[in-house]
Amino acid sequence: MSFSTEALARIAIELQSDIGHPDRFSRLITTLRNLLGCDASALLRYEAHQFIPLAIDGLSQDVLGRRFALQGHPRFEAIARAGDIVRFPADSVLPDPYDGLIPGQESLKVHACVGLPLFAGQTLIGALTLDGMDAHQFDTYSDEALRLIAALVSGALNNALLIARLERQNVLLEEPGGDTTTGIQEIIGLSASVMQLKKEIEIVAASELNVLIGGETGTGKELVAKAIHQQSPRASHPLVYLNCAALPESVAESELFGHVKGAFTGAISHRSGKFEIADNGTLFLDEIGELPLSLQAKLLRVLQYGDIQRVGDDRSLHVNVRILAATNRDLREEVLAGRFRADLFHRLSVFPLVVPPLRERGDDVILLAGYFCEQCRARMGLGSVILSAGVRSALTAYGWPGNVRELEHAIHRGVVLARAASGSDEVVLNPQHFTFDGVATPSVQMNAPPAGRVNLREETDAFQRQVIHQTLEKQNNNWAATARALSLDVANLHRLAKRLGLKD
């Protein structure tokens, strides 16, 4: 069976309309699902030996956050190596990466599955996957007809990748599908706030401006710094990390600027500091608000003139370093309180970025949960890790005071508990596998309530208010002690308390 000219024209129109719009591929997937009568379909791009979902239909939302490495998914490896249409036998023994991820279908043991590799010339750039519950669902469609669809989609995907690279002002375009991002962690999310953040990262990355990255603890400020560096002209040079909060004042100057032999007791040899190591590259100063005032003045001099002096050395060295700094403090308040230099603050905050907290990112929590589930599956050698409907509802309703870091730990802990309870490598995460730290809803209260009878967000907020209030009383109204008792960052506790109406 082949497709009508009208059907092919409809696909072509979907692909060409609003060529830069992110919804274009979602519309395409929906059109293909209706045309082919499949129960689930997905468009994925290929990059760094893994497939990354761009658009899905008929699959759980967390699939968009998952990353399917070839070495862990034999079906995707078969598609990547085939060079042509792959029709998997209905009873194929190869594990299906979507098993448990099609709502209403607990198992995909016998079903129709077709993979269409997508190419730009001879280079693999993506794949289109089609699944149907009827084992003979795609038998009537000829390989030639499916190749025609693959050709249309390949052209559109290649154009989208080229446009994305041009938007990043990358004049020397890499080969599509090349392993240019190997080892790079990406910022997962499709919410408006994250899309805006990604746009701002692309803008500032191409410049030489210093950047101040703000945001609560656990939001992913280091990931933003990595993204800026990797998209900058300095990407081929080092990105050097230094946590200012973990830096004893007695050795801080040496860590930053280095020292010469004999400069102080224990200085038995010359040592390069972080600025020298980062020469022509980028220096990421995490928790910059913790840097002592005495060192703030010396850091300001480097930003102004590019000159450093090793401890114990009279000579100056010139370095070419871009500074990315991060803080979970309000540095404007720190300046007013005299704890942070105003001139350094203004030098750093020419282009400030703020990483949004997880509670303001909507459904991104599900995408991130899917990402962490796939990470756990690969690390622990599991067959699958699936989020139940109850867990997805609970994850969305919870406020996440510890942000992405708290979510990551919760998923990893949940997978360990679920695997231990089931004794199987097919893990399904249920509400009882989650006990969030401190102010979270305990497992006994996380069972999904009957529809229309309980507002889970209101119940969660009420429980948080109660726990914070009780703990605050036990700690004699000491907020810092309360934060320690609840295993929370004190700044995050203050923000949570304000949101819950416990303080002005």
Mean pLDDT: 84
Helix residue percentage: 40-55%
Structural class from helices and strands? alpha/beta
CATH third-level topology of the largest domain: Beta-Lactamase
Please state the second-level CATH architecture of the largest domain: 2-Layer Sandwich
Q: Give me the side-by-side strand order of the main sheet.
A: 3-2-1-6-5-4
Strand percentage: 15-25%
Query: What is the domain total for the residues?
Result: 3
Radius of gyration: 26 Å
- Strands, total number: 17
CATH class of the largest domain: Alpha Beta
Envelope shape: globular
**How many helix segments?**
17
Largest sheet geometry? 6 strands, antiparallel
- Low-confidence runs of at least 5 consecutive residues: 169-184, 438-454
For CATH, the homologous superfamily of the largest domain is named as GAF domain
Gap between N and C termini = 68 Å
Please characterize this protein's 3D structure:
The protein has 504 residues and is of the alpha/beta class. It has three domains: 163 residues, Beta-Lactamase; 162 residues, 3-Layer(aba) Sandwich (Rossmann fold); 141 residues, Helicase, Ruva Protein, domain 3, CATH 1.10.8. It has a six-stranded antiparallel sheet with strand order 3-2-1-6-5-4, with helices on both faces. It has a five-stranded parallel sheet with strand order 8-11-14-7-15. Strands 9-10 form a two-stranded antiparallel ribbon. Helix 1 runs antiparallel to helix 2, helix 5 crosses helix 6 and helix 12 crosses helix 14. The radius of gyration is 26 Å and the shape is globular. About 7% of the residues have low confidence. This is Nitric oxide reductase transcriptional regulator NorR. InterPro entries: AAA+_ATPase, AAA_lid_NorR, GAF, GAF-like_dom_sf, Homeodomain-like_sf, P-loop_NTPase, Sigma_54_int, Sigma_54_int_dom_ATP-bd_1.
